[in-house]
Amino acid sequence: MNASKYLNNGRKNLAAIALAIGSTLPLAATLVPTNAEAAAPQVRTQAPGYYRMMLGDFEVTAISDGTVTIPLDKLLRHISLPEMKNLLSRGNLGMQAETSINTFLINTGTQLVLVDAGAGRLFGPSAGGQLVQNLRAAGYRPEDIDVVLLTHIHGDHSGGLTIDGKAVFPNAVIRVDKHESEFWLDAGNEKMVEPAERHSFADAAASLAPYLASGRIQPFESGSELMPGIRAVPAPGHTPGHSLYEIESRGQKLVLWGDLIHAKDVQLSRPDVTVQFDVSETGAAAQRKKILAAAARSDAWVAGAHIAFPGIGRIRQEGNGRYAWAPVNYSLAGLDAGQHVAKALDSAAKVIPPFLKRPESRNYAAKANFCFWVMPPMAMLGRS
Ligand SMILES: [Zn+2]
C-alpha cells in the first residue's frame, strides 16, 4: 500500500466530513495523520555509560561495566521475605534485581586512576563487560590507565583486568590491600568461603595472571596513602582485604565504597542484612553500620559499586540506625568548576597589560572606568 496516497485520500475524506458537519478546519487538522506519526524503528540502546563530576581539581568519571540481575531472595541473609519484598518495592525493584556494576576513574591531573575493573567476560555476554567501551566513550583508552586500585578481588571487580589471558590495561600497575591478594591467591583458603563462592580463587588467579607475570601487582599495607589525594581505608568483612578509597582535592571528598552495599533499598534500612558473597558476615555488617554512621555525619560524597549507576550520592540519617540515599544531581555546570576562573585570569593577563600601555588609557577617566567596571567582576571570579 502506498502510504502517502492513503494519507492524501484520508485528508480529502476528513475535510469533506468536517465541511459536511459544519466543523472547522483546525478540528480536521487534528484528526489527520501526518508524516511525523510515521513508524520509526525503536532504538533500544542506552546512553553511553559514564557520568562525570569535578572534585576540587580532580575529574571523577563513574564508568558503567553494565548490570547483572541477581536473585536477592536467595542471596540476602537475616531478613524475612515479606520485609525484603516491601523494602525492594520502595526502590522499584523485585527479588530479581538488576544491579549496576560501577567503576570510577580519577584523573588527578598527573595520573589516571581506575578504581575497580568490572566483570570482564566472567558473567558471560549478557551481564557486565562494558567497561572498555564506556571508558572509550568517556574519552580515555585502556592504555592510558596508570593505576588500577581494587576495592577487593571478587570477579565483578577484577574480572575486567584480563580478557583472553591478555592484560586489558597494559601500562597499569594494580594496587590492592595485601590481605586481599594474599587471601585470594592462595587456594588453600578455599574452605574459608562457601562452596558456591570457591570459583573466586580460580577467577582471581586468571584475572591477575598477566600482571603478576610482569611484576605489576603492588599490594599495599592497610590504610596507606597511595598518592597525593588518594588514601586506602581498610574495611575488612565482605572480604579479608576489602578497602574503601578516600579521594580528596581542595577540601572536597569522595569515598569509594566498593561492596559495602549490595542492595541499597534493603541495607540502608537494615544495615545488619548480609549477602552470600560476604566472607565474614559479622565483619561486613559491622563495617556497614560504622561507615554509614560516619557518612551521615559527613558532607563527603560516597559512591558504591552496586548502587544504581552512577552510584554517587550522599547518605542522610533517617532515624534509629536507618539511612536514606540522596543521589547526585545531574549536572553540566559543575564540570566547569574552576575552569571559568582560569579562563578569566588568562583573559585578564592578555587584556590588562596592553590596555595600560595604550596612550588613551593614560587618561585618568579611562583608568577609573576600567577599575570600576572590569576589575571587580574579575576579582569576584577569582574568589569563587
Ligand atoms: Zn561486587
Describe the structure.
- α1 runs antiparallel to α2 (25-31).
- The chain is 34% helix and 24% strand.
- A hairpin with a 4-residue loop joins β4 (96-107) and β5 (112-115).
- The radius of gyration is 28 Å and the shape is globular.
- The chain is α+β, with helices and mostly antiparallel strands and 384 residues long.
- A seven-stranded mixed sheet has the order 1-2-4-5-6-9-10. A seven-stranded mixed sheet has the order 11-12-13-14-16-17-18.
- It contains 13 helices and 18 strands.
- Residues 1-30 have low confidence and may be disordered.
- The chain folds into three domains: 3-37, no CATH class; 50-334, Ribonuclease Z/Hydroxyacylglutathione hydrolase-like (Metallo-beta-lactamase, Chain A); 338-383.
- The structure holds zinc ion.
- Zinc ion binds next to α6.
Distance between the termini: 64 Å
Biggest β-sheet: strands ordered side by side in the sheet: 1-2-4-5-6-9-10
Provide the CATH architecture of the largest domain.
Answer: 4-Layer Sandwich
Regarding quaternary structure, how should these chains be classified?
Answer: single chain
Low-confidence stretches: 1-30
Number of helices: 13
CATH domain class name of the largest domain: Alpha Beta
Mean pLDDT: 87
Task: Work out the number of β strands.
Answer: 18
Total domain count: 3
What is bound: which ligands?
zinc ion
CATH superfamily of the largest domain: Ribonuclease Z/Hydroxyacylglutathione hydrolase-like
Strand content: 15-25%
Globally, the shape reads globular
Gyration radius, in Å: 28 Å
Let me know the largest β-sheet: 7 strands, mixed
Helix content range: 25-40%
Query: What is the third-level CATH name, the topology of the largest domain?
Result: Metallo-beta-lactamase, Chain A
Q: Please state the structural category.
A: alpha+beta
